[in-house]
Amino acid sequence: MKTRFITSPDGIRIAYDVTGQGPVLMLLHSAGKTRKGWHKVGYVERLQQDFTVITVDIRGAGESEFLTDVGDYDIDKICADLYTVADACAAQQFAVWGYSFGGSIARYLGAWSDRVTAMAIIGVPFGPAVDAAFDRYIDEFLDKYGPLAQEYDKSKLTKKQRQSAIKGYFPVWIACFQAMRQWPSIAPADMRCPTLLLVGTKNENVLNWVRSNQGVLDGSQVQVEMIDRLSHPQEFSRIERVYPVVLSFLRSHLGNGGESP
Fold first, then answer.
1. Please, which residues have CB within 8 angstroms of residue 63's CB and are 6 or more apart in sequence?
2. Strand arrangement, sheet containing 24-28
3. 186-239: per-residue pLDDT in tens?
4. Which domains does the chain have, with CATH numbers?
């Protein structure tokens, strides 16, 4: 896995890698993880047989630049990063597969850009980026790690404390989670491309959203697939069950589409 870098429109260094050939597929990781997870679990090894696979470290994560200001995580800036990565790969059009936090970001790409040819969103609902359950989690996270992040920004931590803050990415997520509260709501009808929403039946939050919003889903380009007995973490880790479903969807919509750089 050879790391490449681009500089975003607002001057931020973003890390990514490219593998395989065929229609372009961009992979977006979950919160607290990096692009390496797609490699470790085995997704890239499988996908590269059919696609040019781009895995990205979302700003603030992995080898991308470590950022601690709320304004750094404006969703427009994050999307601009990803368009710039696609540009660097000569991909005018591309598909996107996002899991959890990456899936939330993916919704904006699919709703705002005609460059996206197909979209797979794993384990997150439509609507606001921060729903009631996530909002409560953010409050708990802020209570627990907010003071540490503030001291980090003021450079008042010992070397050991600073290393601990960086290792846990606490200043990053304090900033990012607060920014997400300002991200606009995205509805299924906003999606401009064929979209797969995959959810495990043990992911009760998203499952309940699907059941309560069937009327909203009807008539949109969003196709829902439920996988029995999978929790939210397993929606990524159980590759033997998730991969065939997403691959079938992508092949059906990208067989004659997409671009090969």
1. 3, 5, 15, 34, 57
2. 4-7, 13-20, 52-56, 24-28, 94-99, 116-122, 195-200, 222-227
3. 999 999 999 999 999 999 999 999 999 999 999 999 999 999 999 999 999 999
4. 4-128+186-254 (3.40.50.1820), 130-182 (no CATH)
